[in-house]
Amino acid sequence: MKCFDTHIHSEGRSVEDLTAMANEGIKAAITCAFYPIKPMFQETLIDLFRKLIDFEKYRGKKTGMEIHTAIGIHPRCIPPTYTKVLEMMEGMDSTAFGEIGLEDATQEEIEVFESQLKLAIRVDKPCIIHTPRNNKKEVTKKTFGILEKIGFPETLAVIDHVSLETVETVLKANYIAGLTVQPGKLREEEVVTIVEEHGFENFILNSDTGFSPSDMFAVVKTVNVLIEKFDKKDVKRVAWENGMRFFRI
Amino acid sequence: MKCFDTHIHSEGRSVEDLTAMANEGIKAAITCAFYPIKPMFQETLIDLFRKLIDFEKYRGKKTGMEIHTAIGIHPRCIPPTYTKVLEMMEGMDSTAFGEIGLEDATQEEIEVFESQLKLAIRVDKPCIIHTPRNNKKEVTKKTFGILEKIGFPETLAVIDHVSLETVETVLKANYIAGLTVQPGKLREEEVVTIVEEHGFENFILNSDTGFSPSDMFAVVKTVNVLIEKFDKKDVKRVAWENGMRFFRI
First and final CA of chain A: distance in angstroms? Predict the structure, then answer.
C-alpha cells in the first residue's frame, strides 16, 4: 500500500535513504522547515525555504518520492527578527506552514506562532502544528488557547506528535491529529490502540525522520501492522487519503 | 587502517551514513561548505558556516567520526554580495577554507576566489581548491594563474579532484593534490597508477560524498586496494598522515 509520510525533514536523509523509503512504499512526503542551530539571520530561513521548495523536491523526484514542502519558523529556530520571513512565506509556493507551534511556550514563541497562524488564515494555508516532548499536555492546552483566541479554522490545523494522553482533546476540538511513530514518540501498537478507539477519519501518519537517528520506514511498518488488523479501506485513509485531502494535494 | 576523508559534504549524509563510514574506518573527515541552490542572501552562508562548525561537528562526534570544518564561498553558490561573509570567515573557528575555486571561471568567480585566497594568506589558512569536471585542464591552468599572481603559498593549497591529465602539473607546481575517488572522478585503479608513478608524499584522499548518490566508503575501499600493492607505511601517508599534517590537525 502506498504511504504518505506527512512530516519528515528530508534534509537530514541522504538521497539513498529517500530512495529506500520510496522503494518501501513511501511515495509522498511533506518535508518540514527546521534549522538545526538557532539562525543569526532571518535571511537564512528564506533561503532554507527556497532550498526545500527547489532542491528537496528535485531530490525527491530522483528517488520516486513526491516531496511537498512546509515552510515556517520552528519554535527552536527563531531568528532575532522575522518580519521579512513572514512576508516571503505569504508568496512562496508551499503546501503548508510547518512545523510551527510551541516548544517551551515562551512569549517569543507565542508571538511567532500567532503571527504565522494569522498569516495562514489570510492565505488559507494548512498548518502542521508541533507539540513538544516535554509538558506535552500543558503545552497542547496552551496551543489550543492560541488557536481559539484567534479563531483559527479547525480545517487548517493538524496537531502533530499527539500522545495517548493528548489525542482525545485534539479530536474533541475537531483538529486532525498527527500520529508520529518513532522511538520516544508513538509505538506501532499505540497507533493500533488509538484507531481502535477513535476510528480512522481524523488521523494522519508520519515518522518525523530527519537529522537524528530514526526509523525512516516507520510509516510503512505501521501501515503493515494496521493491515493485519483492520479493513484495507480504513488503513488507506490514514496511510494516504486523509493527508492528501487535508493538504489539498 | 584508519582513514581521513579530506573532502565530504556531511550535510548530505544521514547520521546513520556517518556512523557506517566511521565503523568502516573513516575516523576523520573535513566537511566542506556548499549550498545546493544559489543563495539569495550572504547571511545564509554565515549561518551555514555556523551550522557546519556546531551541528555537523556534533553529529560527527555522535558517530565516532571527527568532523573538521572548511568554510568558504563555492563558485556555484555565490550570493549577490559577500563582504560580510569574508569578514566572518576571518574570525570563525575553521580548519580550512573550502571548497573554493573556479567552476566556469567567470569574472565573478575569479573575484570571489581571489578575495578568499588573499584572506587565507592573511590568516594563514589551508585552502581546499576545487577544480571542475568540465574543462578541468584549462580551468586548473587558470587557477594556477591566480595563485601565482597573488603569490599564494604552495603549503596552503590542495588542488582537489585532480585527474590523470592534471596531476602532473599540480605536483610540478608544488601543490598537494586531492585524489577524489568517485564515479565520474577517479577510479581506485587510477589512484594506484598515480601513486605508482608519483609516490605518496603529495597526495590526500577523499570521496566528495554528500548530496548526490555516491560511494561514501570510497576512501576505505581505495586504501584497501593500496594495501594489497604497497607498503603499509606509504599507504598510511595518503590515508591519514599527509592530510593531518596539511590541515595542521
Answer: 18
